Amino acid sequence: MIDLHLHSTASDGLDTPYQLIKKAIDLKLKAIAITDHDTIEGIEEFVTFGELKDIIVIPGIEISIRHEPNRELIDVHIIGLNIDYTSHKLINTISNQIKGRLDQKKAICKRLNKEFGYNITFEEVLEITRGKVVGRPHIVEILIRNNPEKVKLKSKEDLFKMISIGGDAYVEREVELNLEESVELINSVGGISILAHPGIYSVSKKTKFIEVCVKAGIEGIEVEYTYAKNRPYLGTDKSNWAQKYIPEYFRKIANKYNLIKSGGSDYHGGKKNIIMGEANVPYNYLKSFI
Q: Rounded to two decimals, what is the model's pTM?
């Protein structure tokens, strides 16, 4: 098996790129990809160490695209696999993305403090990231640590929703690539653009949504994914149904639109019950782009 959707400490994962490879080898995975959120910071360590081991390592990224409600593009992510992470165009574009992400998270922390009375500062959030990309998990961690009484009746899921799209404390990013720009960037640096976890998006018509992505130039789709243990099916009676039938549905979609099949666990490490490799992505998927 392989896993083409993994996060490290370069974004909001808890394992270093080195540790991802060590765990993958222990699990006897044949190939893995690092796909941190809006950053390529961990790729060099990942590739350098991986080249010394008996495992295929693939440089990648997961880009959060601009929200476009009129096209039902809400919190949609695009994965780029096999990218040239040394490209100056990629480095410069991602640097701007990271700045936009930082400004957004800073504004969210300010709202939580000023408007909702939470004890939180952006500096505290930044400190626990160890200089890496700031994500929602970091904000939630500080919310829980600093406000035990205020959050005791809220679940982690509630806190995530509060700072996510549509949440009371959410702030839009000012710097963000749209769907077409994200696909063009990935393609321009030799990568394969993959629509991440297509089964989690709330859209009125799945086929129309896929057609929008295909028209934008998407080359592949994440078929296998950990739906039973991930949003929005986590902890619901639909989790087992989602794990069985959603991948099956998107295999047919991939065949219909002649899309490259991909997949991954969306592993972040830590206490989250997702295990690297458990999306059961077959090795033959690599034939499309390796």
A: 0.86
